Amino acid sequence: MDRRIFGLETEFGLNYVPSDGRRLTPEDAARHLFRPVVAWGRSSNVFLNNGSRLYLDVGSHPEYATAECDQLLQLIAHDRAGETVMLDLVEQAEEQLLEEGHEGRLFLFKNNVDSAGNSYGCHENYLIPRKVEFKRLADMLIPFLVTRQLLCGAGHLVQIEDETKFVFSQRADHMWEGVSSATTRSRPIINTRDEPHADAQYHRRLHVIVGDSSMSETTQLLKIGATDLVLRLIESGEIYHDLRLENPIRSIRSISHDFTGQTVVRLMSGDEPTALQLQWKILELVKGFVARHGAHHDQVERVLQLWERVLVAVESQNFSLIDQDIDWAIKHKLITGYAAKNDLGLDSHRIAQLNLTYHDIDPTRGLFHLLRRRGLASSVLDPLAIADAVENPPATTRAAIRSKFIRAARETGRRYSTDWVHMKYEEGEGGVVLCKDPFATTNSAVDELIEMMRRPV
């Protein structure tokens, strides 16, 4: 697909730290966080003016799902907009808590593991053609996803045989299957839930739940951009060397724990390349495909250059090549530098605090934001693009229609309901279903609903 719908769903870690000794349960903290949302939306599951979805997920995790996007930078801007929306809720909740006699701070972390070892996700959604046989696609995509953590892992500290080690990925140790319909108890790399929110005769949704949340915009660009390119290669039907893994779950764990990239990955064919060699092979295939068919958007060359630079950095163990661009490398430099300066082991509580604070989305506290302000972490977005994404939907997808409907309903004070494809005026008759074309930006039936809402009662 030269033009694809993308979406990101990010679950945030939530913690309340009292300064007066009065603790709150996670449920109470989440209830305070979402009180303004419930006040105007009559629910903790709402769609916003920018077309995105905001809700409380299982385990009191706030979750933000971007509106449908069809451009890489657009998607990154809308993902970053989610952080802004969440920070606004934190500010309101802290003010409210103070009025109720609670002195403390709410923290939101864009990470994937809490202190108890529970994992929560960053889910990627890609619109793919129905005509592509799904098993074939999964067989071809999983080798890339298993080794993709070299490109875009968030970095993490884990205990391995009584030793604390810095590893590539936060999610790798929490995957249990290659492909399944589960999302929590037996997490797969690819979830099979088929909700295309488009004409199901022609489209299906690819739901990838193996990835780490990204603080870095450049990491996000590589994560989504490289995956899109691999999908485009698979969708073309071109035949390439069989890279199916004998045991994806064993491989994903061992790769994460080996910072050299030299972990051997056994293929179904009997070949035994290293994780790094597998990534080099896939990059070579993708570059050949782009050379033959051309770049389908203006960020392709940037994605390919960054992809190659990461592999060179891992191969040479010269992480300075990417320590402003890739989350695991940025964090690795921060943690190892601090540990050496202060003569600390990686098992130190101070190091654990750094590992967590890197993911604090508050720009006044979060270490990633501090590094970016100091010029030690790169960006791809103009801040104005993020501010615009907070208020406005992508203008090139169905989200523009949803946004128009929500704004009209809220302006008129009418009762309404909406989700990804349904829009209903509760005080009128019927509703509209937009499940055919996710790229459509206008709809006459929705316009009629809006006119109905604006008529005097």
From TrEMBL:
The active site is at 57 (proton acceptor). The reaction mechanism probably proceeds via the activation of Pup by phosphorylation of its C-terminal glutamate, which is then subject to nucleophilic attack by the substrate lysine, resulting in an isopeptide bond and the release of phosphate as a good leaving group. The lineage of its organism: Bacteria, Bacillati, Actinomycetota, Actinomycetes, Micrococcales. PANTHER family: PUP DEAMIDASE/DEPUPYLASE, PUP--PROTEIN LIGASE. Belongs to the Pup ligase/Pup deamidase family. Pup-conjugating enzyme subfamily. This is Pup--protein ligase. The gene is pafA. Keywords: ATP-binding, Ligase, Magnesium, Metal-binding, Nucleotide-binding, Ubl conjugation pathway. Its EC number is 6.3.1.19. ATP binds at residues 53, 66, 420.
